[in-house]
Structure to design on (1014 residues):
């Protein structure tokens, strides 16, 4: 009952405020009247009685305020009133409000974006049941430096049999046969689509524990049969492809053409289902050619395993380490098995890590660097706001003192200040979230593949909670800071000193300390950003080994079912011939792997009269490049010794090869490589036999697997000589025409030769290069943006503090000028103060940068973390910014008119 | 003159509750009654009285009603609610216990 009564009273006070207020007035008036009557009764004149009564009662306003405090609805009521008051007073100082809200919005915005990425990519578990049980098994070769490579089929099977720690072990392949790139041609309607495909075995789906949305999984007997016959023609579609490509209509049991062969759709995956961030659109049964399934050299399977309940990751790792000791003995083989301490280039070891770690991979360091950078920005934002609010509190101490004397309690003032904080933090928070949402969308659209797991990225509840917590913290900080100033000074002195407030050296120190901290953080950020910008510059300027100007490229894939290596070669030849005839095209060639960002082949290649260091007649060649046409001239790759392929070679019986400088140096150490012979396995490019190839030339090294990597050994074979072709080829045309104007012609030419061949990734070579350095570029751009923000905020901070100091010292400056001080002296003195603070900040920032930059050294290319030029440049930039920020207030100080200042006092 | 702050913490509430426990009274009458009964030892200032009344009203221990006084003016009369009566008994019991204890200490020490 009491609770209801209380609630009723509170609601009454809230909704009938005017009536309640009126009643309070009436009650107090009654009391006053009674007192006056009593005084008159005791013999005073009415006038004297009234005065006496008023004196006895004292300030009625104060009682009213107290009575209001008693009605606890005040909290709501005051809030409404405070918000109104706040908006009024903030509107009065629009500049201050704009700066605070903008600063907050930027701070919240960048924090939200980066925290969304950190949360969505690094922290949020994968979308599988019990995702922490999922592990990823890859081969590593410390000798060659290759990491994260696939396992061979025998290794996969052996691991499945030997392990005790895993409940399910499954495999997938993004290729399945050499040269395919995890994409297939899908004919839905009249236009061929190129879709992202993955080949999986049934245990993999069991290990991931994903259930199809419609239809069924592949059955055990349908996958990994590894017989000579092709896999069963069945497929599962991703939810997204089903929606976009087939309009979401019932399709289970129907047939679509994949690689020219009709496949039955047996299932639809749930939304977002994927493996290893592959952006899978179509799921096919895993199939290997029996030869590939037997070969230990054929590293084609990626392995995902789910730990048994209760089996720890450490136990699984320990078990794997124990296997590695005697893997060969267990499997009964001595050749090319994983051993614990690899000594030869073909030896490798196996590595287990969590699937999440494998997906996020090397992006995690970059993301943490960004998170740290944003942390710095946020600290600068806080320092800035603290300074701004402290300065404002100083100038408002008179207002607060006045209100205190009028009966406002300290609690009320604090509430008022916190309300201001809430209003501004709220506005900043909302604006920041809006900015973050827009920024995130822009980021994902601009860099669709630079960040892993982007399909999962959204501003969700945990992120909102963090932003809310930061906003609330800021609001409270605001409140206490605004009021903190009135505590230090007494009421009377605040009123007396007026706007100048209570000048306290402690506050000056705090303010200067905050500016020093801002500058220091800005220095660290700008140096970090400078190093990364230099890295990107170095990467773009790197010599990839060929002339990339005026090159246009696209890729084409022949459906496997209706073509064999011979007919493929003929079709490609026809396409190339027609492309060469286009006016404005200077040359057209085709190749198997497009530099500068292709995957390595690592093919064991027998070499005549040569024994490798570990006593074998073969050497691992990192890259096989199968080319068609006048390759070296069109690509602009210089021939160092000997000659390139010529059209007269095509008919000759003797097979020819060209090697790169690294291969020549590695194998024939100082001897003349021309005339030496090697024997590439014919099966690797569709030839029917292994033939000896004679080296006729040495080409300059071309960067193949990323610009920042040292070139590996590379072997060039001319497919024109073999009259065969792998199913996928990359075409490169040297032309003055832009790719946009060429695309219609190219598509027409290709479809005239074979309508089932889609033209994909048509772009110029500059875009290919830009794509290959997308991650360092993204990192540099984001860090650059943060550094700029930090710089601007620090400049605002420096400016704010100096101009506040100038305002406080106007009187002193006025007197000095009146006494004959030269204006330039005043100017110099104020600027000197600003620069002293900046210098301290730079010194601290440099120390911090030197300590921290080791962390980003692995992301740098062609530059040291202690690069003096960068550091000198950064110091120069910050000094210039600081000078500008100090000059304006100093100039204003020097313009002080002593007459006006002294008159005002 | 005794100031309200000299009252033992929370005693004012007890005094008010006790004073209106017999019949409803307006603020002025409450203050006068306390002053009279305490033989001028306790003078309740307006500044403490009205906030206390509002506090008690918010606690729903007392309720208010506008009535005409004997002089024909309108005034706000406060009376105890059932829960206020319970509260008064609780506070009285407390007070008896406390004052007895203080008495013992004052006389023995």
């Amino acid at each position: 009952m009491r609770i209801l009564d209380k609630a009723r009273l509170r609601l009454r006070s809230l909704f009938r405020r005017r009536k309640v207020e009126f009643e309070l007035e009436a009650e107090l008036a009654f009391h006053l009247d009674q007192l006056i009557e009593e005084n008159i009764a005791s013999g005073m004149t009415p006038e004297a009685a009234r005065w006496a009564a008023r004196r006895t009662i004292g300030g009625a306003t104060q009682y009213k305020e107290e009575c209001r405090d008693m009605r606890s609805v005040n909290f709501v009521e005051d809030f409404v009133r405070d918000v109104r008051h706040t908006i009024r007073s903030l509107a009065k100082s629009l500049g201050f409000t704009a700066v605070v809200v903008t600063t907050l919005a930027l701070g919240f915005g960048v924090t939200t974006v980066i925290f969304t990425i950190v949360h969505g990519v690094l922290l949020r578990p994968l979308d599988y049941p019990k995702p922490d049980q999922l592990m990823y098994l890859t081969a590593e070769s410390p000798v060659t430096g290759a990491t994260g490579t696939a396992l061979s089929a025998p290794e996969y099977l052996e691991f499945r049999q030997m392990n005790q720690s895993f409940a399910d072990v499954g495999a997938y392949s993004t290729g399945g046969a050499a040269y395919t790139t995890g994409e297939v041609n899908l004919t839905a309607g009249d236009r061929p689509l190129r879709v992202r495909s993955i080949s999986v075995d049934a245990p993999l789906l069991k290990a991931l524990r994903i259930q199809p949305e419609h239809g069924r999984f592949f059955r055990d007997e349908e996958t990994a049969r590894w017989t000579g016959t092709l896999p069963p023609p069945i497929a599962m579609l991703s939810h997204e492809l089903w929606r976009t490509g087939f309009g979401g209509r019932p399709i289970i049991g129907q047939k679509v053409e994949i690689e020219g062969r009709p496949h039955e759709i047996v299932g639809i995956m749930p939304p977002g289902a994927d493996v290893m961030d592959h952006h899978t659109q179509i799921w096919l049964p895993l199939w290997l050619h029996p030869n590939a399934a037997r070969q230990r050299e054929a590293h084609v399977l990626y392995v995902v395993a789910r730990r048994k309940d209760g089996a720890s990751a450490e136990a699984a790792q320990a078990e794997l380490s124990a296997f590695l000791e005697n893997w060969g003995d267990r499997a009964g083989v001595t050749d090319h098995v994983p051993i614990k301490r690899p000594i030869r280039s073909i030896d490798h070891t196996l590595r287990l890590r969590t699937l999440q770690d494998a997906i996020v991979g090397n992006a995690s360091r970059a993301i943490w660097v960004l998170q740290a950078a944003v942390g710095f920005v946020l600290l600068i934002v806080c320092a800035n706001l603290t300074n701004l609010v402290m300065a404002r509190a100083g100038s408002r101490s008179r207002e607060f003192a006045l209100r205190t004397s009028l009966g406002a309690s300290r609690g009320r003032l604090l509430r008022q200040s916190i309300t201001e904080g809430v209003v501004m933090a709220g506005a900043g928070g909302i604006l920041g979230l809006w900015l973050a949402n827009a920024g995130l969308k822009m980021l994902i659209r601009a860099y669709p593949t630079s960040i892993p797991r982007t399909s999962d990225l959204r501003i969700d509840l945990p992120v909102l909670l963090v932003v809310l917590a930061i906003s609330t913290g800021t609001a409270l900080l605001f409140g206490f800071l605004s009021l903190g100033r009135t505590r230090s000074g007494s009421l009377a002195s605040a009123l007396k000193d007026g706007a100048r407030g209570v000048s306290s050296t402690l506050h000056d120190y705090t303010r200067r300390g905050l500016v020093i901290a801002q500058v220091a953080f800005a220095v660290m950020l700008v140096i970090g950003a400078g190093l990364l910008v230099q890295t990107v510059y170095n990467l773009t300027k790197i010599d990839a080994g060929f002339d990339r100007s005026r090159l246009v490229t696209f890729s084409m894939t022949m459906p496997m079912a209706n073509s064999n290596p011979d007919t493929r070669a003929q079709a490609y030849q026809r396409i190339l011939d027609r492309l060469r005839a286009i006016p404005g095209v200077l040359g057209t060639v085709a190749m198997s792997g497009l530099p500068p960002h292709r995957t390595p082949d690592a093919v064991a290649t027998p070499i005549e009269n040569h024994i490798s260091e570990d006593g074998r007649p073969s050497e691992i060649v990192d890259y096989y490049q199968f080319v068609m046409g006048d390759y070296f001239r069109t690509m602009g790759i210089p021939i160092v010794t000997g000659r390139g392929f010529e059209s007269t070679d095509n008919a000759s019986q003797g097979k020819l090869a060209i090697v790169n400088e690294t291969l020549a140096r590695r194998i024939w150490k100082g001897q003349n490589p021309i005339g030496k012979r090697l024997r590439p396995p014919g099966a690797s490019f569709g030839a029917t036999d292994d033939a000896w190839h004679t080296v006729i030339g040495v080409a300059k090294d071309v960067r193949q697997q990323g610009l920042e990597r040292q070139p590996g050994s590379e072997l060039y074979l001319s497919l024109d000589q073999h009259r065969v072709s792998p199913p996928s080829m990359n075409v490169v045309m040297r032309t003055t025409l832009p790719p946009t104007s060429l695309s219609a012609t190219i598509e027409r030419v290709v479809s005239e030769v074979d309508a089932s061949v889609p033209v994909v990734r048509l772009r110029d070579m500059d875009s290919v290069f830009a794509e290959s350095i997308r991650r360092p570029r993204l990192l540099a751009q984001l860090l650059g943006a943060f550094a700029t923000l930090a710089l601007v905020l620090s400049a605002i901070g420096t400016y704010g503090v100096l101009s506040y100091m100038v305002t406080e010292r106007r009187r002193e400056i006025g007197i000095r000028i009146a006494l004959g001080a030269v204006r330039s002296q005043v100017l110099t003195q104020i600027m000197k103060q600003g620069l002293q603070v900046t210098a301290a900040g730079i010194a601290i920032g440099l120390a911090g940068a030197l300590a921290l930059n080791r962390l980003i050294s692995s992301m740098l290319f062609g530059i040291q973390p202690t690069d003096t030029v960068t550091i000198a440049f950064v110091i120069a930039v910050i000094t210039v910014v600081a000078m500008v920020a100090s000059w304006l207030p100093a100039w204003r100080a020097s313009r002080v008119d002593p007459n006006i200042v002294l008159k005002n006092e | 003159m005794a100031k309200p702050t000299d009252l033992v913490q929370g005693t004012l509430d007890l005094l008010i509750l006790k004073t209106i426990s017999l019949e409803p009274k307006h603020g002025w009458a409450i203050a006068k009654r306390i002053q009279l009964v305490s033989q001028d030892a306790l003078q309740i200032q307006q500044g403490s009285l009205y906030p206390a009344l509002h506090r008690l009203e918010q606690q729903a221990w007392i309720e208010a009603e506008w009535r005409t006084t004997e002089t024909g003016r309108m005034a706000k009369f406060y009376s105890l609610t059932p829960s206020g009566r319970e509260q008064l008994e609780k506070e009285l019991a407390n007070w008896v216990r406390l004052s007895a204890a203080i008495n013992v200490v004052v006389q023995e020490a």
Summary: The CA atoms of residues 40 and 49 of chain A lie 6 Å apart. The interface with chain B takes residues 1-2, 5-6, 9-10, 23-24, 26-28, 30-31, 33-35, 56-58, 62-63, 66-67, 69-72 of chain A (CB under 8 Å). Residues 363-405 of chain A form the longest helix (43 residues). The mean pLDDT of chain A is 82.
